[in-house]
Structure formats: structure tokens, C-alpha cells
Amino acid sequence: MPPTARPRQPGRRLSRLVNIGIPYLWLGIFFLLPFVIVLQISLAEPRLAQPPYTALAEWLGDGVLSIRLDLQNYLLVLSDDIYLAAFMNSLKVAFFCTLLCLLIGYPMAYAIATAPSRWRIPLLMLIILPFWTSFLIRVYAWIGILQTSGFLNNFLLWLGLIDEPLAILYTQTAIYIGIVYSYLPFMILPLYANLTRLDRTLLEAAADLGCRPFRAFVRVTLPLSRAGIIAGCMLVFIPVVGEFVIPDLLGGPDTLMVGRMLWTEFFSNVDWPLASALAILLLGLLVIPFVLMQRWQLAAEDPDR
Amino acid sequence: MSVAIDRRALEPWQDPSAVPFVRIERVTKQFGDIYAVDDVSLSIFQGEFFSLLGSSGCGKSTLLRLLAGLDYPSSGRIFIDGADVTDIPPYQRPVNMMFQSYALFPHMTVEQNVEFGLEQERMPRRERAERVGEMLDLLKIGELRKRKPDQLSGGQRQRAALARSLAKHPKLLLLDEPLGALDKRLRENTQFELVNLQERIGTTFVTVTHDQEEAMTMSSRIAVMEAGRILQIDTPTGIYEFPSNRFVAEFIGSVNLFEGRVMQRDGDLVTVETRLGRPIQMRCPLPLALGKPVTIAIRPEKIRLSAAYRDDAVNQIRGTVEDIAYLGDVSIYHVRISPDQVTRMTLANIQPQTEQELTWGQEVAMEWSPTSGVVLTD
After folding, report:
1. What pLDDT, on a 0 to 100 scale, did the predictor assign at position B160?
2. Of the partner residues B107, B120, B165, the one whose CB lies closest to the CB of residue A211
């Protein structure tokens, strides 16, 4: 449809400008500005001073402005295998945690969305309730559960399933448990929001056309909840790649993850430029695939427009 | 005698030896303590265009869902084509339904929607493509095959939904308010199209509607429902001309009701005493006891109106013209016949309105013949 021509009204334009301007201003101050600062630090050199990095631009006098861009931080990160290993491990952990959250969260979201309406709010409350306790405390609680003399081992010993305590704490398994537990609500909530909007008559129509319930789920429910699946997976995957607290508390000392690496460079080694370079690379690693995916999705939705 | 034979083929319900295609036997459906369908028995014959007519909440949609298998009856049995399908799930019934909201799959194109049911049948790909093409041609939506439902207009969506529900060649097609979402003009055209389509493919149709005009235009027979029960099953003519009770008489079209008591019986002619002057004589095949309270129902267009009062007329009531509504083809007259009753009648405007003799406030006489209405006992 051609856009309808509208007479220009100055008052309208101003209010439009304000309406669009406020969110952009917000994004500019709280997203773009910090990003530029981090980018700038990543191109500097470390030094023992306050702040612990050199300035990019220096006024040398006689009309000479010297700008020094140090790419060594990036070259170091890209050449040292340990950073690559940390990146790969973070991506692996994030991938499997997202998959586990999806496998556990989808049935839960589906059950809540199809429960009788008087049950939905209480069930959702149960999902949200853990947020009322600090994230850190909940992760600490897992130490109590998973340690050698913890609840889990005592319980399994009592059941007679094992003869001696399992070493779960300070392993990769503990990280998976902690991350899946902590991020499950972020998977369930968008999926729930999506699945409650699903028109139930579509499933009736599928059944009427000869489709058994499981096939109807695969052919109708699943494709129609794609937006919820994508939203849930992004909400889990992106923060888990950079997750620092859970691997630090539940994982062993040899756990390599980007988040921990960043923390070490920043606080133990006080190498802000290297840490910033790591952060920028991590951001690129996450943003580029999602931009590509979004493009591909838009193209798939409107093949003939 | 060929006329009689034709009549039997067209009206199988008149033939006691005909085997019904769909048989609903004493079906009840309860939701909590509400009886949505209450002890309904019904036979529908092969090739019929059968309508369930009633206001919202009368149980017509529930009855349709029971036929589709989307709900199961609390008691009673349902037979389709001789087989007991009462406990058969919807995906195994030889029945398809067109939903009121159309329920087209939004993530599939028109073509994929139509193909969906055939895929479930594991029909070979070639045959499937052929059938889809056939259906799209039948409903004249071939050029929309690659569109998604949200790129279609209401009328196009209705056609796509119809194509999808017909694609599997069901033995029985159920239509829930098939024209409900269309605007008035489109609805009128589509009514005839739907009837032509049904005659061409010969599938038995059962539709649900709240629109009496729609039911009258399309149906071979109509079942009028109220509060979970069927009040009358008959042809459109039968329902209109010979309603079996007050509810049906008032639900279909408009009607004038006169209450009275049976005063005399002479063959199938009864004389009813009312508070409106002279007794009224009506044809009535039912055996009625003397003194029984009855209601006489006369349709507005069956009443003649004249300025002159004649002593020899059989049924005549006097009144005063209170209102005239000119609708072009007809005019509606409201005539007050007693302090608490106004009668309504329609007269075709055979003469131009300006030359008509009746005006507001005029004393008039209303007349009708003993065969122009029915005597109701409830």
C-alpha cells in the first residue's frame, strides 16, 4: 500500500522527535558511551597509574596531535591458545545449557500455559519466586547441596544408589547444574508468553484433519512458538557466554571461561586494555551471528515482498 | 407417478424405510451442572444440507463439536454411515469441520493448509498435488495458493478454510457459522454459492447458524434448538408455515399471537374464543379438547387489511392503524386491536404508496382465512 500523504504539522513533528529521541538518548548514554569507552581502553596500553591505561590521543605541542592505537591486545588474545580455549569452552557451556534449559523449560512453559486459568498465576509465581532471593545466595546454596557431605550425596547414600560420595562440586557438571537452575526462568517466561497466545482451535483443526496429538504438536505448536524459542534461547545463551559468578563459585580452579578470564585480567592482573579487548571480541562473537540470523529470518518470512 | 418418486428421493425423511446417514441417539452433554445438549435424538440423511438453528448458548455448536469428536457426549451414541463413532477421536473420524474462526494455520500458505489433511492420510505426493489443485479450482482461489492467511481478505479466508475442510472428501462436512464473519453483501452471495457447491459434490453438510434467513435459504431441513433441546425439525417451509410451538413461531420471522380457548370442533376446523370480538376459526389437524387454552399464530403477510368492515367474513378483527413503516417493496402496519395488543402485518406495495388509502389513526378490519395460520398448544 502506498503511504498516505499527511499534511505536515510542526507540533506533531516535535512530539514525534521527543518520542523517538528519549529512547535513543537512553541508548546513547547507557549503551553506546560505555561501549566507546571500553573500545578506547582496548586500544590503549597498560601502565601502573590511575587510570591504569594510557591515553589514546596526546597533544605533543607545535600543532602535533599524536594518536596511538595499540592492537597488541587483540593480537595477543587471538594468538594465545588459552583465550581461544576459553572462548570455545564458554560457547560450548552456553550452547548445552541453552539446550538443557529449552528441553526442561518448554514442557514446563507448555504445562503452565495449558493449565486451568486459576492455576496459571500461582504456577508462574513459583517460577518467579526464587528471584526474591539474591542470585549470589542461591548459587552459594548449591555449594551446600553439591559438596561431598552435602544434601545430594547424603540423600543418594541414604537411598543406597551410591557407596561413596560423588565429586560433583568444582566440576563442569556443577557449572551446568548451577547455570541451568539460574537461567531456567529466562527460558520459561518468554515461552509461556508465546504459548498462552496460541489459538487452541488450531490444534482442534489439526486433529479434525487427521493429525494425532504429537504430530499436531510438531506441525502446529512448535513452529508457531518459534519466536518464543528464539527469545528464550537468546535470553539464556548471551548472558551464559559471559557468565562469571557460577563458574567461579561452583567450577574447579582449572575451568576456562571467558567471564573468569576477563575478571582475572581486570582485577588480578590489572590489565584493563587486555580485558577490554577480550570484552570487545566477545561482543563481536555474540552480535554478528545474531544479526545474520535476524536477516535470514526476515528474508525467510517474506520471500516475495 | 414419477412425481412421488422424485419427492421421496429429495425428501428421504418422508420415507420410513430410508437409512439415516448420521444418527444421534439420546445424546446429552454436560459441562459441570449445565446441560449444553439435553437428550437430543436426530437423524440426518445422505446429501442433506442440514442446519442447526438457535440463539447463542442453545447448544448448537456443542452438538456440532460432538459430531466432529472435539467433545465427547456424557451419554448417548452417535452413528455416522452405520458406524458407532461415539468414542472415536476426531483424527479418525470420516468427518471434517470448517471452524467459525476458520482456524487456518498462520504459518502455512493456502496450498499447505489445504494439503495438511492429505499429508496426514499419507496420500502420495502426486495425488496430493492433484487434489489440492482440484480444491483450489473448485473454490476459485488458485491464484492465492502461495499466500499466507494474514495476506487474505475475509472472504478469501473463508474459501481457503472451505477448501481445506473439503480436501479429504469427508463423508460429512460440519460448518460452524460458515458465513458469520463475512459482511452482509458477501454473505448473501456466498449462501447460494455454498448451496450450489453442496449440490455439485453431494457431500452431506451440517451447519450451525444463528441467522434464520441463512438457514431458510440454504437448508434442506432445519432443527431449531433452545436450551440444549431440539424444538422442531422440519423443512424451511414447514418451520415457517407450521411451527409446532410458540418459541419456534416467534424465533423464525415475526408472528401475531392471539390467545384463547377452544369453543367448538367440527372435523379439522376449530373455533377459538378470544377477547378480541368474534370467535376465530382455524384449520387444525390436532385433536383438541373443548375449553383447552390455545394460541393462534398468524404471519404478518397472511393478513388482509381493509377499510371496510364486513359482517360475513370468517375471521375478522377490528383495530386502529398506529404506525406505518414504508420499506419500499412492502409496508409494515402496526394495528392496535386492544389496549394491550398491537398486531403487525406486512402488505406488498402493489400500488405506489401515495395512492394507498390507509393512513394513521384509521379504523380498519383485519381478515385471514382459516388455513393461513396454526393453532399452538404450548
Report:
1. 95
2. B120
- Are B210 and B314 in a shared domain? no
Chain B residues with CB under 8 Å of A206 CB are 105, 116
Do B91 and A224 lie within an 8 Å CB cutoff? no
pLDDT at B280: 87
Strand-pair partners of A153: none
Interface of B with A in 240-269 (CB under 8 A): none
ipTM: 0.83
CATH number at residue B65: 3.40.50.300
Q: Are residues B46 and B174 in the same domain?
A: yes
Co-location of B259 and B359 in the same domain? yes
Q: How far apart are CA B180 and CA B178, in angstroms?
A: 6
CA distance A294 to chain B (A): 18
Q: Which of A1, A199, A203, A209 to mutate to test the interface with B (most CBs of B within 10 A)?
A: A209
Q: How many helices (H) and strands (E) does chain A have?
A: 15, 2
- Whether B245 and B347 share a structural domain: no
Its pTM stands at: 0.81
Which B residues in the span 95-124 are in contact with A, Cβ-Cβ below 8 Å? 95-97, 99, 101, 103-107, 116-117, 120-121
CA B129 to chain centre: 37
Task: pLDDT tens for chain A, 305 residues: list them.
Answer: 445 555 556 678 888 888 888 999 999 999 999 999 999 999 988 888 888 888 888 888 888 888 888 888 899 888 988 888 999 999 999 999 999 999 999 999 999 999 999 999 999 999 999 889 999 999 999 999 998 888 898 999 989 888 888 888 888 899 999 999 999 999 999 999 999 999 999 999 999 999 999 999 999 999 999 989 988 998 999 899 988 889 989 988 878 888 888 888 888 888 899 999 999 998 888 888 778 878 877 776 654 44
Q: Per the CB < 8 Å rule, is B107 touching A201?
A: no
Q: Which residue in A199, A201, A208 is closest to B96 by CB distance? A: A208
Instruction: Let me know whether B359 and B233 are in one domain.
Output: no
Asked if B178 and B266 sit in the same domain, the reply is no
Provide the Cα torsion B32, B37, B38, B43; round to 10°: -150
- Catalogue all structural domains in chain A, each as residue range(s) with its CATH number: 82-259 (1.10.3720.10)
What nine digits make up the cell of B41?
Answer: 435424538
Nearest residue to A192 (alpha-carbon basis) of A265, A134, A253, A128? A128
Q: CB of B273 within 8 A of CB of B288?
A: no
> In chain B, which residue ranges form alpha helices assigned H by DSSP?
2-10, 60-68, 110-120, 125-138, 154-166, 184-201, 212-218, 236-241, 246-251
Could you give the dihedral angle defined by the CA atoms of residues B238, B244, B249 and B255, in that order, rounded to the nearest 10 degrees?
90
Q: CA A1, CA A132: separation in Å to the nearest integer? A: 49
- Could you give the number of structural domains in chain B? 2
Residue among A209, A212, A220 whose CB faces B96 most closely: A209
Q: How far apart are CA B87 and CA B271, in angstroms?
A: 52
Which range of residues forms the domain containing residue B87? Answer: 2-94+170-249
Chain A residues touching B32 at Cβ < 8 A: none
Which of B197, B222, B249 is the last residue before a domain boundary? B249
Sign of the CA dihedral with B203 first, then B204, B209, and B211 last: positive
| Option in A201, A209, A224 nearest B120 (CB) | A209
Dist CA A180 CA A100 (whole Å)? 7
Q: Which of A84, A94, A210 lies closest to B94 in space, CA to CA?
A: A210
